[in-house]
Amino acid sequence: MRESLAGLTTIFRRELATVLRTPGYGVLGVGLLALLVGIVAVGGGGATGFVPAVVDLLLPTEVVVPLVAFVLGYRALLTDTESGEFAVVRTYPVGVGGYVLGVVLARVVGLLVVVGAPYVLVGVGIWLTAAPDTGIFATHSGVDSPWLYVRFLAFVVPFAATYLALATAVSAVAASRRAAIALGALAVVLGVLGGDLAAVGSLAGGTSPEAISGLLVRTPNGAFRGLVFEHVVGVAFAPEGGFVATGRALASLAAWTVVPTAVSAATLAYGRRLDAFLEGVRASRRE
Amino acid sequence: MSDDAVASLSGVSRTYGGIAVLDSVTLDVGPGVTAVVGPNGSGKSTMLGLLAGAAEPTTGTVSVTDPSGPKPVGYLPQRVPFRDGFTARETLAFYARLVDADPDAALERVGLSDAAERPVEALSGGMRRLLGIAQATVGTPPLVVLDEPTSGLDPGMRERAFRTATRAATDGTAVVLSSHDLELVDDHADGVVLLAGGQVAAAGSRGDLLDNYDVASVDELYRAVVGESVAADASPAVHVTGVSDR
Question: Is the peptide bond before B72 cis (omega within 30 degrees of 0)?
Answer without folding.
Answer: no
